[in-house]
Amino acid sequence: MTTTGFDYTLTRTLEAPVEQVWAAWTRADQYGQWASAEDVVLDVRPGGGWSSVMVIPGGTRVPLSGRYTEVVENKRLVIGMNVPDREELVLMTLDLAPEGDRTRITLSQTFDTVENRDQSEFGSNMLLDGLTAFLAAA
């Protein structure tokens, strides 16, 4: 993915230690619970593949897949997603920073169009809302 374009960065502080947040992102059983995803497969290592079926409000099922390009346990995931009609993966960077018993999470992406950026930013906010609720209930 190019480094120029339309980007967004979302930052939140989560009420959970970094190890718990990492597990939520990297264990298929946990990820499916908070990300509204089914059939989750996560091979969390550089070059490892992932796939899931996102269930969006209204019940529409959207198959997603890609691979991890960078994995630094409890610190960073760079997750690539396959997008139709595009050879390069669309990358999302997830950074985790411990703040005592809490975790600061930062998600960022860059897109070719403002429409794709806005759509992804909306989806990422929904993901973070789900993650926040999941961690609060844990």
List the helices and strands and how they pair.
Elements: E1 6-14, H1 18-26, H2 28-34, E2 37-42, E3 49-55, E4 61-72, E5 76-81, E6 90-99, E7 102-111, H3 114-137
Antiparallel strand pairs: 1-7, 2-3, 3-4, 4-5, 5-6, 6-7
Give the overall shape, derived from the CA principal axes: globular
Structural class: alpha+beta
Give the fraction of residues assigned to helices. 25-40%
Query: Within the largest sheet, what's the order of strands?
Result: 1-7-6-5-4-3-2
Sheet of most strands? 7 strands, antiparallel
Roughly how many Å is the radius of gyration? 14 Å
Tally of DSSP helical segments:
3
Instruction: Report the uncertain regions.
Output: none
State which percent range the strand residues make up.
Answer: 35-45%
For the termini, the CA-CA separation is: 36 Å
Secondary-structure element order, as H and E?
A: EHHEEEEEEH
Average pLDDT confidence is: 93
Number of strands: 7
Description of the structure:
Helix 1 packs across helix 2. The mean pLDDT is 93. By secondary structure, this protein is α+β, with helices and mostly antiparallel strands. The protein is globular. Strands 1-7-6-5-4-3-2 form a seven-stranded antiparallel β-sheet. The protein is built from three helices and seven strands, in the order E-H-H-E-E-E-E-E-E-H.
